Amino acid sequence: MNAKQRNRLAMFMAVKNVFGVYPTELSVIKALENFIVKFNELMTKIESVHKVQQGNTSGARKLKLKEEAEMIEATVKLAATMYVYAQVNDMPDLQAKCAISASQMERMSDEKVKATSLNVYEEAVKLGDVLSDYGQTVEDVTQLKKEIDDFSALIASPRSAIVTRSQATKELDTLMQEANDLLRNNIDKLMELLKSKQPKVYNTYLAARTIVDLRAGMKVVEEE
Question: Cβ distance 10 to 214 under 8 Å?
Answer without folding.
Answer: yes
